[in-house]
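thought: fold this chain, then report.
action: predict
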Amino acid sequence: MCKRVFPNRRLTSLPLFSKMSVYGPVVKIHPVVLASICDSYERRNEGASRVIGTLLGTIDKHSIEVTNCFSVPHNESEDEVAVDMEFAKNMYELHKRVSPTEVIIGWYATGFEITEHSVLIHEYYSREATNPIHLTMDTALQSGKMSIRAYVRTRVLPSRTKGLTSDLSQVGGSAGRVQDMLTTMLAYIDDVMSGKVAADNSVGRFLMDLVNKVPTISAEDFENMLNSNINDLLMVTYLSNLTQAQIALNEKLVLL
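observation:
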């Protein structure tokens, strides 16, 4: 038996699932598919918590029709999941001889939760079908009814807009703190010059060293340099927002 073993790993870097009834086309499931899933669950191996299998059917522009399915042997543990991919491949070849119009459209699993193993198995079916669906069926009636849900995987892109716009706030905050420190330093120097505060030689040497490290630049040149950097930051922010808008529009057009 040829099996593919998926080691367990964290979900932080993996794409998330979204319910298809909200973000995708309508999923139509034939009753024979539900009966077959229930039968596979009742015939599962001793100690198995759930069963998985391949979904077959047809896809059109506005809907996905699940017309057939078959279970796929697998073993799960806390650390890894092993799926008999050779069995799944052979079963699909046999089904194509009987119903050549049916293609792989996703996979199913009994239960109502999407686990780390579910995401790993979905990676395999993503190579067998374009944007496959994942069907969950609560055959154990843990929610009090036989809940059936269909999901499709969508990639969640990290938002950079907040980070870019916050850079402007950081620049403003840093400039404000520098201004406060300069005000404090000038007030100390005025107090020393007027005799209100005794002079401290160590502080004087520190201030002299600080002044010598400041580059010689006119106020006009410094203002031009700062404005140029701010303009670059604003341009990057604009391009980031434009890119995100184009990606969102493309995802909507793909689902039409």
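thought: worth noting. The chain has seven helices and ten strands.
final: tokens above.
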